[in-house]
C-alpha cells in the first residue's frame, strides 16, 4: 500500500512528466475510480488546462490546474505511468493526454480515488487530516502536543490520519522497531525521551525512504522491512520477531528489544 514516501515519489514523478503541458484530452476508462464527481464534469474542468504545480500532504497528491486542483489518493495499489508511445498499463483508470505523451493513473484494486477539489487546504480541513510529518512546521514540540492527554496503543495513534497524515503500517512498525518501543505501549506511558526518539526516527526513516525514491525494497538491510516474518531473527538484537494484530493491521515487532 502506498504510504507517504511512495506518494512523495509519485508527486516527483508527476512533476517530471505532467507539469507545464496542455491537457489535450482526459480519458476516464473506469468511472469507479472517480470520487463524487461526474465523469463529464471531471473531463470538462481539466481538458485544455495545464498543471502548473504539484504538492503532497500525507498520502494525498494535489495538482494545480488553475481554477481547480486534481486530487489523487492511491489506495492500496495505485500508481502513475507515463508513456510517449501511447501504451497504457493494464489497469489504467484515468489518462491525461498531452501533446507529447500521456500520464495514466492506474489502480488494480480500485481503492484509489481521482477527483477535483477547490484547493488542498479546504480539502484537508474538511476531512480533519492531521499534519504531514515531513512538513517544516511539524516540530518535536508539536508532535509531543499531539500525544499529550491521549490513551491507547502508540501504533494506533501513529496510524490515525486525523492525528498524523501519511504514516501506514510498514513505516509505523519500522519507527517503533528502531526506537525499541512495543506497538501496544500505551501513549500515556511514554517518557519525554521516548516521544522525542519516535519523532526523530519517524522523520529519519521517511526521509531515507524518500531519498531512495520511495522504493522500500531498497531500504537498508538492517531495517525491519526485510525481516517481516513470524519467528525470524531480529537484525538488531538477535531476538525473535513476532506477528500480532494491532489497530486491525498485521504487526511485526521484536520480542526482546521492543518494550
If you had to describe this structure to a student in words, what would you say it looks like?
This protein has 259 residues and is of the alpha+beta class. The protein has helices spanning 4-18, 39-46, 120-126, 140-147, 154-159, 169-179, 192-211; strands at 25-28, 53-57, 60-64, 69-73, 78-83, 92-97, 102-107, 113-117, 241-246, 249-254. The protein folds into two domains: 4-126, MutM-like, N-terminal (N-terminal domain of MutM-like DNA repair proteins); 140-254, Helicase, Ruva Protein, domain 3 (Orthogonal Bundle). Helices cover 29% and strands 21% of the residues. It has a four-stranded antiparallel sheet with strand order 1-6-7-5. It has a four-stranded antiparallel sheet with strand order 2-3-4-8, sandwiched between helices. A hairpin with a 4-residue loop joins β3 (60-64) and β4. The longest helix is centred in the last third of the chain and has 20 residues, at 192-211. The model has no long low-confidence stretch (mean pLDDT 96).
Amino acid at each position: 500500500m502506498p504510504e507517504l514516501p511512495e506518494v512523495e515519489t509519485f508527486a516527483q514523478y508527476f512533476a517530471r512528466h505532467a507539469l507545464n503541458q496542455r491537457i489535450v484530452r482526459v480519458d476516464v476508462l473506469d468511472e469507479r475510480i472517480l470520487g463524487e464527481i461526474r465523469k463529464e464534469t471531471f473531463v470538462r474542468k481539466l481538458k485544455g488546462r495545464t498543471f502548473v504545480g504539484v504538492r503532497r500532504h500525507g498520502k494525498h497528491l494535489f495538482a494545480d490546474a488553475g481554477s481547480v486542483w486534481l486530487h489523487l489518493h492511491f489506495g492500496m495499489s495505485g500508481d502513475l505511468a507515463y508513456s510517449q508511445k501511447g501504451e497504457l498499463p493494464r489497469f489504467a483508470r484515468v489518462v491525461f493526454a498531452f501533446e507529447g505523451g500521456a500520464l495514466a493513473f492506474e489502480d488494480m484494486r480500485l481503492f484509489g480515488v481521482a477527483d477535483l477539489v477547490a484547493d488542498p487546504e479546504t480539502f484537508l480541513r474538511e476531512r480533519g487530516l492531521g499534519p504531514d510529518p515531513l512538513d517544516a512546521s511539524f516540530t518535536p514540540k508539536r508532535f509531543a502536543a499531539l500525544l499529550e492527554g491521549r490513551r491507547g496503543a502508540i501504533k494506533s495513534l501513529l496510524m490515525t490520519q486525523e492525528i498524523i497524515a501519511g504514516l501506514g503500517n510498514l513505516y509505523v512498525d519500522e519507527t517503533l522497531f528502531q526506537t525499541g518501543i512495543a506497538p501496544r505501549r500505551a501513549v500515556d506511558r511514554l517518557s519525554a525521551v521516548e516521544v522525542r526518539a519516535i519523532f526523530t526516527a519517524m522523520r529519519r526513516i521517511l526521509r531515507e525512504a524518500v531519498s531512495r525514491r520511495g522504493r522500500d525494497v531498497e531500504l537498508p538491510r538492517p531495517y525491519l522491512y526485510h525481516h517481516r516474518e513470524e519467528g525470524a531473527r531480529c537484525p538488531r538484537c538477535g531476538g525473535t520477531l513476532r506477528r500480532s494484530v494491532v489497530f486491525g493491521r498485521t504487526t511485526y515487532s521484536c520480542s526482546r528489544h521492543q518494550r
